[in-house]
Write a structure and sequence with these properties.
The protein has a domain of 167 residues: Helix Hairpins, CATH 1.10.287. Helices cover 76% and strands 9% of the residues. The strands form two sheets. A four-stranded antiparallel sheet has the order 4-5-1-6, covered by helices on one side. Strands 2-3 form a two-stranded antiparallel sheet. Strand 4 and strand 5 form a beta hairpin. The longest helix is centred in the middle third of the chain and has 100 residues. The two termini are 27 Å apart.
Length: 400
């Protein structure tokens, strides 16, 4: 224990004796290191984030799920194997041997790659990363070109199918409108026919009434004619009996009166016959007119039934067309949904290669002035302390 304390005391004495040998060179080294660090050009870290190409798959149908078209590890291996060094050197007019080293890191569980390089020239480093991004974009476009072309073809076919459905829908709507107009026209014709039928029914009823009146009048005239005929025959019989009995002179006036009455009855009978004939003609005309009106009435009923049947047929056709129009609308809606999915798939393919554009770090990554000064201090203290002990040991050896 006492020996250890003596050793520490001896070491402190050596350091106290040769303190300037240790401190002055260390301070000089620290100052020199600080000055050199200040004079050195700052080195910046320029980084960016790129994403590997992805495609969208429907799983289940109607639900998109994005998957990697190229694995990030594959892209990272290509960059680490310096596949792009030659083309980028020619593009940037650089010596391939002096091409800056690009550090590639895969962001786990994602399709992202972090690219970075350190350089004193920020615009140059950014141009290198952007040139690499363009090369990657060209390769990605070539890789997904067939898929993009297939999607473009499907979108074009979808647009054509939708345009065709739109034309079909317009034709169906126009056809429905035409059918509706035909239905309205038929309904107007039915109303007109029903009005005519009502008028014919009224005319038929009126003719029936007139025919009954004519029949009653004809019967009355026939009865009157029969009565006149009977009366005339009775008078003629009386007249004949009077002639056959050699009537006296005083009965001549009576015979003459009978003759006048018979003549009047004959004239009345003739007039009644004429009226009866006229009534028969009128009655026959009324029957014929009633028959004609009845036929027209039945014809109008047939026409109305036919028109109503046509209206029902037109309505069924219109309903069928409306159903077809709804089916076409549903097809258009399905086509729009399909196009939206295709557009999303196309958008996934059009994702830019840069998720984060190349940019410098907030602070230079080198030189680290404080760290360099601290390291110079530690190294100076260690070296010159050891040198002080070496001189002390050398002095003691010479003294012996």
């Amino acid at each position: 224990m006492l020996q250890n304390l003596d050793g520490w005391r001896e070491s402190l004495a050596v350091l106290k004796k040769r303190k300037w040998l240790v401190l002055l060179p260390t301070l000089t080294g620290m100052v020199a290191t600080g000055v050199v660090s200040v004079l050195m050009r700052p080195v910046w870290r320029i980084d960016c984030l790129i994403q590997s190409p992805r495609i969208a798959m429907e799983s289940p149908p109607g639900v998109l799920r994005e998957i990697n078209f190229l694995e990030p590890r594959q892209i990272m291996e290509q960059i680490n194997r310096h596949v792009y060094r030659g083309p980028l050197s020619r593009e940037l007019n650089l010596n391939p041997r002096r091409f800056p080293k690009i550090k590639v890191e895969w962001v786990r569980e994602t399709n992202l790659l972090s690219l970075s390089l350190t350089h004193t020239d920020i615009p140059f480093a950014e141009s290198v990363l952007r040139a690499l991004g363009r090369r990657l974009q060209e390769d990605f476009d070539a890789a997904v070109g067939a898929e993009r072309q297939a999607l473009d073809t499907r979108i074009a076919l979808n647009d054509n199918a939708r345009a065709l459905r739109e034309l079909m829908l317009k034709d169906q709507v126009r056809s429905v409108q035409i059918k509706d107009n035909d239905i309205r026209l038929k309904q107007a014709d039915i109303l007109l026919l029903e009005n005519q039928k009502t008028k014919h029914e009224q005319a038929r009823a009126s003719l029936s009434a007139k025919l009954k009146i004519a029949e009653a009048r004809n019967s009355q005239l026939a009865q009157e004619r029969a009565a006149v005929q009977k009366r005339s025959e009775g008078l003629e019989e009386i007249q004949k009996q009077t002639y056959s009995e050699n009537a006296a002179v005083d009965n001549i006036a009576l015979l003459f009166l009978y003759a006048n009455v018979v003549q009047q009855n004959r004239e009345l009978a003739s007039a009644l016959d004429e009226k009866l004939n006229l009534e028969k003609v009128n009655q026959e005309n009324l029957r014929l007119e009633h028959l004609a009106v009845g036929k027209d009435f039945e014809s109008l009923g047939t026409q109305i039934d036919k028109a109503k049947t046509e209206v029902e047929s037109l309505r069924r056709q219109a309903e069928s067309m409306k159903g077809d129009a709804e089916k076409i609308r549903l097809d258009i809606k399905n086509l729009d949904s399909e196009k939206a999915l295709l557009a999303k798939k196309r958008a996934v393919l059009e994702s830019p290669v840069f998720l984060k554009e190349p940019g410098p770090s907030l602070d230079p990554v080198a030189p680290r002035k404080k760290l360099n000064v601290v390291l110079a201090m530690v190294l100076g203290l260690a070296v010159f302390t050891a040198f002080a002990f070496f001189l002390e040991a050398l002095q003691k050896s010479d003294a012996r």
